[in-house]
Amino acid sequence: MTLLAGASLAVLVPPARADDDMCNVPKADWQTKEALSAKLTAEGWDVRKVKVEDGCFEVYAIDAAGKKVEAYFNPATLDAVKIKQED
Fold this sequence. Notes:
Layout: H1 2-12, H2 33-42, E1 46-53, E2 56-62, E3 68-73, E4 80-85
Antiparallel strand pairs: 1-2, 2-3, 3-4
């Protein structure tokens, strides 16, 4: 019975993600996708796509080192929250 109760709780409570708090910003405080793209381009990135995912800006790009990246940015500060880089 205890196992069943634990399993029920696991279904009701979604797993926490490390970047959830980093992108919890009111829409009124957001900068634009274009501003993020311009910032990254100035840093040598070739930005392919910018979209909104879980409250963050999600960017698909080639970074200044020539590696494919999938990166998440805080929409208010445009600071990187998480970057996945091709090996």
